[in-house]
Amino acid sequence: MISRWTTAVIDTELPGGWAVARSPEGFLFDDNGALFPREWLKRQDLSILAEHGIGHLDGEPVYLLELQGTQEIAGCNWKGLRAFMLEDDHTLYKVLGYAAQIGTWAREHRFCGSCGKRMSQVPRERAMYCDACDLRHYPRISPSMIVLITRGDEVLLARSPRFVSGVYSTLAGFAEPGESAEDCLVREVREEVSVEVKNIQYVGSQCWPFPHSMMLGFHAEYASGDIVPQEDEIEDAQWFNVHNLPPLPASRSIARYLIDLYVARRLGHAEPVLPG
């Protein structure tokens, strides 16, 4: 049976439910996974910064315990979100991905950015409130574009010094204030590889909880220019033939989807589905 996950604001005063525990180093897990009986988890003397009800998994409430740091719990270990992304349980990854975004927001908004006073959670709403300033802060979403540039049977892929060794991916960057997604795309491509593009087409989007991005995926055709990698940002960038691609990003990423989609269309294969 496929598990059903829905996000929701849940009252933390209610008893029971499941919970995930998150620290800056990742999520707590044991042999049964990363979901624990909530009441058991809260009896473990954890250094809890914040607790938020984040949704329902198969009808059961799920809560996030955002922790000060990692703690030793018998039979348990800690693992980062990217490691969960590479595993088979996509529903669990969606739960943890959402929890990571709420946890980051909760950690960074304990105090008002205007006056410095402690903020409080707003009942029945995903918001933090400053009584002194009458300000509400909602979870942040940072829009960014990601684009596959193509030239016939060739795709332009690049690698950052931060990537896993050997892996090449699509170009990406965050939108600046006042920019459209298309403006951002053109600017980022120009900055990162000194290439001009044309025929920009929107493909799809994906929540990217590292830590709070909304990736807007595009396809664009090469227009002009020679590849000149941006110093300190791009380690290497090349044209690759669809028949001879380098190691690529993880299969659940929108970067991989953009590549796989173009290759499938070019070669007449069945089109992949964008991971939810």
From TrEMBL:
GO terms for molecular function: magnesium ion binding; manganese ion binding; NAD+ diphosphatase activity; NADH pyrophosphatase activity; RNA NAD-cap (NMN-forming) hydrolase activity; zinc ion binding. Residues 139-262 form the Nudix hydrolase domain. A divalent metal cation 2 binds at residue 188. A divalent metal cation 1 binds at residues 172, 192, 233. Its cofactor is Mg(2+); Mn(2+); Zn(2+). It catalyses: NAD(+) + H2O = beta-nicotinamide D-ribonucleotide + AMP + 2 H(+); NADH + H2O = reduced beta-nicotinamide D-ribonucleotide + AMP + 2 H(+); a 5'-end NAD(+)-phospho-ribonucleoside in mRNA + H2O = a 5'-end phospho-adenosine-phospho-ribonucleoside in mRNA + beta-nicotinamide D-ribonucleotide + 2 H(+). Substrate binds at residues 82, 125, 138, 206-213, 255. GO terms for cellular component: cytosol. A divalent metal cation 3 binds at residues 188, 192, 233. Its EC number is 3.6.1.-, 3.6.1.22. Pfam families: NUDIX (PF00293), NUDIX-like (PF09296), Zn_ribbon_NUD (PF09297). It is an enzyme of class 3 (hydrolase). Keywords: Hydrolase, Magnesium, Manganese, Metal-binding, NAD, Zinc. A motif (Nudix box) lies at residues 173-194. One of its GO terms (biological process) is NAD+ catabolic process. InterPro entries: NAD-cap_RNA_hydrolase_NudC (IPR050241), NADH_PPase-like_N (IPR015375), NudC-like_C (IPR049734), NUDIX_hydrolase-like_dom_sf (IPR015797), NUDIX_hydrolase_dom (IPR000086), RNA_Hydrolase_NudC (IPR022925), Znr_NADH_PPase (IPR015376). Zn(2+) binds at residues 112, 115, 130, 133. Belongs to the Nudix hydrolase family. NudC subfamily. Homodimer. mRNA decapping enzyme that specifically removes the nicotinamide adenine dinucleotide (NAD) cap from a subset of mRNAs by hydrolyzing the diphosphate linkage to produce nicotinamide mononucleotide (NMN) and 5' monophosphate mRNA. The NAD-cap is present at the 5'-end of some mRNAs and stabilizes RNA against 5'-processing. Has preference for mRNAs with a 5'-end purine. Catalyzes the hydrolysis of a broad range of dinucleotide pyrophosphates. This is NAD-capped RNA hydrolase NudC. It comes from Pseudomonas fluorescens.
